[in-house]
Design goal:
Structural class of chain A: alpha+beta
Largest interface: A-B, 26 and 17 residues
Radius of gyration of chain B: 11 Å
Strand content of chain A: 25-35%
CATH superfamily of the largest domain in chain A: NusG, N-terminal domain
Structural class of chain B: mainly beta
CATH architecture of the largest domain in chain A: 2-Layer Sandwich
Distance between the termini of chain B: 21 Å
Shape of chain B: globular
Oligomer: heterodimer
Order of helices and strands of chain B: EEEEEHEE
Number of domains of chain B: 1
Largest sheet of chain A: 5 strands, antiparallel
Number of helices of chain A: 4
């Protein structure tokens, strides 16, 4: 890791849906000699925010000044570790663990929720036991078709 | 927009051509989201973390 506290990330609030335009305008404002702005990004999972990797907060404020769709509120410093989970995509199956309560979000069994009793990583499938069934009824569904509702206490 | 932007499935770089100008792959897609503009790859922590060595546009999620 580079020396702490020098390069930081700053969140800039913008109008939802205008992130790409604002990023382009910001990029156009940066000259080839400006070495204090390292990167600009927006994440599909965080709408309405742009993140600027820069050496100072003032530099970011100056860069965003007067751009349409940028909300007039102070830029907020953000930790790199807060952004990383949004940048590196983990397959859905990696995020599910045994005992989690999940809901089926698509397919003919949509809406059923239950506890995960088996995880088949090579097949990308999870087996769940519906919570409202009167008798044990394991159902295997693709991992992409479920959403975690409650995580079990296990440390992943 | 005059030219359609495409993202490389291998290295996530966004290009307007038919081959990726970073890795030379033609495995491109228009189905991508997010945007990372790397301006200073030597200093950028994001670039180091994600292995982006060249300045330019990159997608966050490639479909």
């Amino acid at each position: 890791m580079p020396e702490a506290g020098r390069t930081r990330f700053f969140a800039v609030k913008v109008t939802v849906g205008q992130e790409r335009n604002v990023v382009r305008i910001m990029e156009a404002r940066i000259g080839p000699g400006d070495k204090d702005i390292h990167s600009i990004l927006f994440l599909p999972s965080i709408k309405g925010y742009i993140f600027v990797e820069a050496e100072s907060k003032e530099r970011v404020s100056l860069l965003t000044q007067g751009i349409r769709h940028v909300k007039a509120r102070p830029v907020m410093p953000v930790e790199m570790k807060e952004l990383m989970p949004h940048l590196v995509e983990r397959p859905m199956i990696e995020t599910i663990s045994m005992g989690d309560v999940v809901e089926i979000i698509s397919g003919p069994l949509q809406g059923i929720s239950g506890k995960v009793i088996r995880i088949d990583k090579p097949k990308n499938e999870v087996t769940i036991e519906p919570s409202d069934a009167a008798f044990p009824l394991p159902i295997s569904v693709p991992a992409d078709q479920v959403r975690v509702m409650k995580q079990s206490g296990e440390v992943r | 927009m005059p030219t359609k932007e495409k993202a490389c499935r291998n290295c996530k770089r966004i290009t307007t051509g038919n081959v990726c100008d970073n890795c030379g792959s033609s495995n491109l897609t228009t189905n991508f989201s997010g945007l990372i503009i790397i301006l200073n790859p030597e200093e950028s922590e994001i670039a180091k973390e994600l292995g982006m060595r060249k300045p330019g546009y990159y997608a966050v999620r490639v479909g």
